[in-house]
Amino acid sequence: MPKPPPPDSPFWKVFGVMTKLNTAAFRATRGKVGGRFGKADILLLHHVGAKSGKSRVAPLIYLPDGDDLVLVASKGGSDRHPGWFHNLRANPDTEVELRGERRRVHARVATDEERERYWPRLVAIYKPYDDYQGYTQRRIPLVVLEPRV
Q1: How far is CA 17 from CA 5, 58, 117, 141, in A?
Q2: How far apart are CA 131 and CA 115, in angstroms?
Q3: Is 90 helix (H, G, I), strand (E, B) or coil?
Q4: How many CA atoms lie within 13 Å of 4's alpha carbon, on the beta-carbon side?
Q5: Which reaction does it catalyse (predicted)?
Q6: Which CATH number fits domain 10-147: 2.60.120.1440, 3.40.5.10, 3.40.50.300, 2.30.110.10?
Q7: Which of 122, 98, 59, 36 has its CA nearest to residue 140?
Q8: E strand or H helix that includes residue 94
Q9: Which residues are bridge partners to 119 per DSSP?
Q10: H or E element: which one contains 62?
Q11: How far apart are CA 128 and CA 27, in angstroms?
């Protein structure tokens, strides 16, 4: 199995540009463009840099589960967690943008039982998640975004 690109590779620079374009298209069309990736729905996750304090937005695949939204904390199979995961650990209360709607949410890591229930459903909507897990010895966490009360 091929290794993922290193964090400073041109791949991740292009990925950053594509992320900005997707975010702009998503907002301009209220999710009609940039709101799906294959079979998967996309949301815009707002988070604040744990070290920088800067506001950031990340378009991410999610799995709806009732009022909860489930995310996979993997950086394309990299052996490190993505920045948004670390930021949510530092500040779990945040907002997401769905198609034409903003929600305040609270992030938490899924329990083992939830992970067992969600993982097959996540792989069904985005098959590379299964490959990502094969790239690393660590267990990729799942993040549950619950409505903030």
Answers
A1: 16, 12, 34, 26
A2: 16
A3: helix
A4: 19
A5: oxidized coenzyme F420-(gamma-L-Glu)(n) + a quinol + H(+) = reduced coenzyme F420-(gamma-L-Glu)(n) + a quinone
A6: 2.30.110.10
A7: 122
A8: strand 93-98
A9: none
A10: strand 55-65
A11: 26
pLDDT in tens, the chain (149 residues): 556 667 677 866 776 777 778 777 777 787 777 778 888 899 999 999 888 889 999 899 999 999 999 999 887 666 678 889 999 999 999 999 998 789 999 999 999 999 999 999 999 998 888 887 777 777 888 999 999 97
Helix (H, G, I), strand (E, B) or coil at 10: helix
- State both tokens at 74: 């993997």
Task: Indicate the pairing of strand 101-109 with strand 142-147.
Answer: antiparallel
Q: Which residue's entry shows tokens 């209220």? A: 30
